[in-house]
Each structure stands twice: as structure tokens, then as C-alpha cells.
């Protein structure tokens, strides 16, 4: 699918522009506190001319045949950029999970890649303990690939979810 840059793209988020749109595909989840599973996912990045992207992610568990089993995770948030005008941006990302966890990330975007690490994690009283996380997003052959690693519930930082999504 062809992708066009928005005419009102704020220069601070230019290094993130490749992420704009709706992405769908399948991923994998695994962690010591959850069962290994496959999931479907929809990721949406939107922009309204201001120096941030809005983010929405929803996942659903699928069976071995790829059929929907049940709804799973929901996240929403914002990516704010500060471009150096040379294709690189310092990025701040705020993510709120439906489980009561909020993560604040800092990182850098350039060349179709975004690397982020948490600076702070907060949670509601009923949420599971999460102490840190990293996210890696990349434009690989026109697809969005990502990896989400988490340190939670007494476990060291390790893979939690990863996926390959197509624009659509």
C-alpha cells in the first residue's frame, strides 16, 4: 500500500512519519507469568499537525488456526518528538495500559527505527508490578516489526511480545 506524508506533518515528528497509519498482523507473547500464545494485533498511529503522534494498540488471542479466541491487551498513548532536522529525533512516549500500568519512555528515532527505554513506570493498586521495559519498532521491508521487553513480577528484563504488522 502506498504511503504519503501528511501535508501538515510537524517537523519534530518527521523521523516517525513512517509509522503513521493502521497496521495489522500477528504476533507472539511469552513471559514467565503468562502462557505462551499467538495474537492478532491492530496498531494505529495518527497525527493532527502538532508535534506528537497518537498511539492505539489492541490485541486478541488467536488459536492454532488463527481464529479469534478472546480480546487481550489495549494500550493508548502519545509519541512526542524533537527533531534535529537531519532525520533523527529524540522521542518521548507515554503509554497507558488497560491493566493500570503507565510507562514513560525516552529514546531515539532515525532511519525507520525507534528505540525506547522506560524512565518511569507507575501503576494502580490493583495492577501487576512492572519495573521497566524497552520497545523497539522498525520499518523492515515496508512492514512494522516490534519487540516489547519487560521486567515485571520479580523477573529480569526479557521478551514479552513481538510482532510483524502490515500497513492496511
From TrEMBL:
Signal peptide location: none
Residue ranges constituting the THAP4-like heme-binding domain according to the UniProt record: 13-167
Pfam hit, one: THAP4_heme-bd
Residues bound to heme b: 33
Chain span(s) of sequence motif GXWXGXG: 21-27
Family: Belongs to the nitrobindin family.
Name of this chain's protein: Ferric nitrobindin-like protein
Amino acid at each position: 500500500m502506498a504511503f504519503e506524508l501528511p501535508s501538515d506533518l510537524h517537523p519534530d515528528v518527521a523521523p516517525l512519519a513512517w509509522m503513521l497509519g493502521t497496521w495489522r498482523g500477528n504476533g507472539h507473547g511469552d513471559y514467565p507469568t503468562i502462557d505462551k500464545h499467538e495474537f492478532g494485533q491492530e496498531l494505529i498511529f495518527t497525527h493532527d499537525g502538532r508535534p506528537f503522534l497518537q498511539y492505539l494498540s489492541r490485541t486478541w488471542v488467536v488459536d492454532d488456526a488463527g481464529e479469534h479466541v478472546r480480546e487481550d491487551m489495549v494500550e493508548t498513548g502519545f509519541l512526542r518528538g524533537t527533531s534535529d532536522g537531519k532525520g533523527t529525533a529524540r522521542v518521548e512516549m507515554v503509554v497507558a495500559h488497560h491493566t493500570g500500568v503507565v510507562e514513560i519512555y525516552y529514546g531515539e528515532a532515525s532511519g525507520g527505527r525507534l528505540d525506547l527505554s522506560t524512565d518511569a513506570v507507575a501503576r494502580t493498586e490493583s495492577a501487576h508490578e512492572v519495573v521497566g521495559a524497552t520497545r523497539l519498532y522498525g520499518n523492515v521491508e515496508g512492514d512494522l516489526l516490534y519487540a516489547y521487553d519487560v521486567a515485571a513480577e520479580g523477573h529480569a528484563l526479557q521478551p514479552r511480545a513481538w510482532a510483524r504488522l502490515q500497513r492496511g
